[in-house]
């Protein structure tokens, strides 16, 4: 397989870094985008040492970028060539119960998780549509499958993102470009470090990363869940009647 | 989210102690200073993959810094074999990167699921100790973060460096390290197995085999009477065939649950040891073996520590100086075999004279023996106290990384530099082990 050009938006997340390593190990060209310059530099040296044929870093606040389409064109130029894979990784979990009272915080979480991510997805869609090649992978969440009292602000934003990317996939279906929203289950990353005891449903970022890259190589499946076990779990959760569901503390 | 969060699932490998900790999981070097020097009044302790058996990686009801998120390469010069990387990277990850380019760790312990930082903090040794020394011999420099806010590069030979080798994380957080790797001509080794029938024969074989880069022996600690001291000696060198590919295989099995306590008794242990002896001695004596099963036989069963049941187990590893080694090893085996509390795998190896200079480094010239004992409470502690007497009389010492119970006087007798070491200890870093052996 020839080296691919891979853009990672939100490159400092745990899953994003694991995914970048899989691409680096096979010699792909990487563009890492995130806010923190020193941390990006730490990733860059590592990924080059692991075999990435190129690794560019771009310091950018993705959530407040006014002109994503222009910035994306610059990134592709910097990477030199076509865009093969674009991952939209960034997001904030937020604090559901605090955000219910602090509406500014709720707004800002939804701005990051939905609005800004949606606009980046649209920008990527335009590029890969006109190339008639390339894959958009947006990281969504099982939290978007049904509103639950413990994290529905996050869930609603991810539901919106899932629907948007499904629409992009529909739009691109007649050509060769592809788009996927991945519904992610529980992954043991810094975002979830505060969870006390991690049971059997928790996955490690490395395994998830391998599967993400496999999906980027061969995008298929209408509604991918990672890991797969979340598909049956969420179909049960979606079909529990409200009378019963409302008695749970999920 | 960096910060400390209460976790209940941070135990050591022996699983005899189960306590809550507040755990931080940083991923970037810039997060360490804040985690070390807050004014909460708590102590903290850097930990890696927690393969130390006892309490040297525990800080009950206080804090831990899980370093496994700092696992990046900083510089890898493939022509000189000088590698600089963050301390939380595992030897498993390193092997995957190093082996295909013809390099290997200067030495490796019997599991690859340890971090580089943990390996340095315990100054680990391996099957090539008689030729390469411990890992500290190949460490060129470290970056150490301390609770006074400093982040200092320390070079080999510096007193703080010598305190940090084998210092169990107590001198500061090892953030990154630079090591000199060893060249390998293959991912495979040529391994010769030779059965021996007594402790004396073991020492004779070890003496004849010093030209081999790697040597180790398995010894049957359930054998009694005329069979006492029987075992299988292995000696190996790297092949030189340029074959770096790994054999294809599926996912490694994992032990999903704790064995019940009755599963492990003197009969099942005897059966296992007989079976293992048969396994090891059948087939041709010289075998070409991939490095993974050769160095890490137990890693092929994830969570093998659950075999010892929910009560956990102790490992007892001692080193005895050469002059007294033969007699002391024989007496240790007699005591264990009489107790009926032997273990599945007892390992015996001669160590060489090359020293890293680490103040609390375990290895010294002589013979080291390691055995597991299922935790049967007072009975097990009593047996280990009997073994302590034999080790102390022979001027030997115990390995802190394996220990969860040695008395303070045993530690102090074995490690006379402990007081000097204490002057380098970071005041905000603490472990159960240190608490136990340093306070009188």
UniProtKB/TrEMBL annotation, chain A:
Keywords annotated in UniProt: Oxidoreductase
Name of protein: SDR family NAD(P)-dependent oxidoreductase
One GO term describing the cellular component: membrane
Lineage: Bacteria, Pseudomonadati, Pseudomonadota, Alphaproteobacteria, Hyphomicrobiales
Organism: Devosia marina
Annotated family: Belongs to the short-chain dehydrogenases/reductases (SDR) family.
Pfam families (UniProt xref): adh_short (PF00106)
InterPro entries xref list: NAD(P)-bd_dom_sf, Sc_DH/Rdtase_CS, SDR_fam
Highest taxon listed in the record's lineage: Bacteria
MF terms (GO), sorted A to Z: oxidoreductase activity
SUPFAM superfamilies: NAD(P)-binding Rossmann-fold domains
PROSITE patterns: ADH_SHORT
TrEMBL record, chain B:
A GO term, aspect molecular function: FAD binding
Cited SUPFAM superfamilies: FAD-binding/transporter-associated domain-like
A matching Pfam family: FAD_binding_4
Key words of the record: FAD, Flavoprotein
Domain FAD-binding PCMH-type: 16-184
Lineage top rank: taxon: Bacteria
Lineage: Bacteria, Pseudomonadati, Pseudomonadota, Alphaproteobacteria, Hyphomicrobiales
Protein name: FAD-binding protein
UniProt keyword Flavoprotein, yes or no: yes
